[in-house]
Design goal:
alpha/beta; Rossmann fold; Structural Genomics Hypothetical 15.5 Kd Protein In mrcA-pckA Intergenic Region, Chain A; six-stranded mixed β-sheet; 15 strands
Length: 418
């Protein structure tokens, strides 16, 4: 077994391979060029998108060459895989803008250097395709009967599959063929929901070029309890700090279940396996492992400075030590406190509840906590269960601040200095 593939297996980054024995043999003989594609359907990737890019870096470190393919061409029609309904169509201008934003995120993470890691955009060859020529040269190699056996299409047939989406597999397969012709790319990697599309590309290269190519997929990651990994109360765990702050990003990993610590350290950090074994050995405090995981992955995505700041903020929130300036902040009117701030409005205005009805429910269910009068830092927060409760100016400390908590994990430091 090739060492790079074995490493992916050890780290939980291996689900299916089209020909593991032959791929392993090829990787032992020579560096292999591989690619991963990302469709820019939004301005930022989320942590689920990043699983293949962790594998990307492991393969790079083993001496292979990676291509990060921006799918500004394929995104024009939308991938039906894993979706129950047709994706919203975006303008070409918006797709290009999203692609530039995502490329910056990916480049920062994998270290695009133009040698071991390069980028491409399938818009460059898809946007100008002649449809008739494409059908004659590429479409002729696809069996509709076989395409309908793939899980992505079988699921969508139950809810409705548009003809434009049906073409997606042909375009993704053509990407693989084009990258083979341009860069000698022999391997496509991606999430396990992409298996059908990837093996279709492998088959297309075999038919058109009489050459061998390979597919390698990774598990779709779930938490130990089976819930979808990377989902927060605000939605997906995005890399863009304007969508998910570094503090919120850190807190997600700091609050994972004990059963997920070792698995996520293996998948989402580059710590040696031996060090991970020591961190997670029996008898160790699981909170130390969670904090290490949170710091490592936040440093990888946002930089060590932001990771340090997020850790300090988390310690201030949960242990009374650290820098509370790193915690989520809200600036509210001091006059409202002096007049008497209704607790429901306060939690809504501070951003700890999206609506007043949600804030009311939070209070009624005992999930709203407020720092003691004049003590924004340190000490236990007290639950407020009366929706008519008033939080007055006496709750503000000498700096005009108080601390709120929603549930067990979400904090906010409120500043009322104006």
């Amino acid at each position: 077994m090739n060492d790079a593939l074995e490493n992916l297996k050890v780290r939980g980054l291996f689900a299916q391979c089209s020909d593991e024995k032959e791929l392993s043999s090829l990787m032992n003989r020579e560096p292999v060029t591989f690619y991963i594609g990302v469709d820019p359907t939004g301005p930022s990737v989320h942590i689920g998108h990043m699983v293949p890019f962790f594998a990307f870096r492991h393969l790079m470190d083993a001496g292979h060459r990676g291509i990060a393919l921006m799918g500004a061409g394929t995104a024009r029609i939308g991938d039906p895989s894993g979706k129950t309904e047709t994706r919203k169509m975006l303008s070409y201008e918006q797709l290009d803008k999203n692609a530039a934003s995502i490329l910056a995120q990916i480049s920062n993470f994998v270290g695009i250097d133009g040698v071991r890691a390069i980028t491409a955009n399938n818009k460059d060859w898809l946007a100008s395709l002649n449809y008739i020529d494409f059908l004659r040269e590429i479409g002729v190699h696809f069996s509709v009967n076989r395409m309908l056996t793939f899980e992505a299409y079988k699921i969508r047939l139950e809810t409705g599959l548009s003809f434009i989406e049906f073409n997606y597999q042909l375009l993704q397969s053509y990407d693989f063929l084009e990258l083979y012709r341009r860069y000698g790319c022999r391997l496509q990697i991606g999430g396990d929901d992409q298996w059908g599309n990837i093996v279709a590309g492998v088959d297309l290269i075999r038919r058109v070029e009489r050459a061998d190519a390979y597919a390698l997929t990774f598990p779709l990651v779930a938490n130990a309890d089976g819930t979808k990994m990377g989902k927060t109360e605000k939605g997906a765990l995005f890399l863009d700090p304007s969508l998910t702050t570094p503090y919120e990003f850190f807190q997600y990993w700091r609050n994972i279940q004990d059963a997920d610590i070792r698995r996520f350290l293996l998948m989402f950090t580059f710590l040696p396996v031996g060090e991970i074994d020591k961190i997670t050995e029996a008898g160790k405090n699981p909170n130390e492992g969670k904090e290490r995981l949170a710091w490592e992955i936040t440093a990888l995505i946002h930089g060590k400075g932001e990771a340090d700041k997020a850790m300090s903020g988390a310690r201030a929130a949960f242990g009374g030590e650290g820098d509370k300036s790193a915690m989520p902040q809200a600036k509210l009117s001091r006059a409202k406190f002096e007049a008497g701030y209704n607790v429901v409005e306060l939690f809504c205005d501070a951003g700890l509840a999206p609506t007043k009805s949600e804030a009311r429910r939070l209070v009624e269910q005992g999930g709203a906590f407020v720092s003691a009068p004049g003590k924004a830092s340190g000490g236990e927060l007290s639950a407020v269960s009366d929706v008519a409760a008033i939080i007055g100016a006496e709750y503000l400390d000498g700096e005009g601040e108080l601390t709120l908590r929603a549930g067990k994990k979400r904090y906010c430091v409120v500043s009322a200095n104006s």
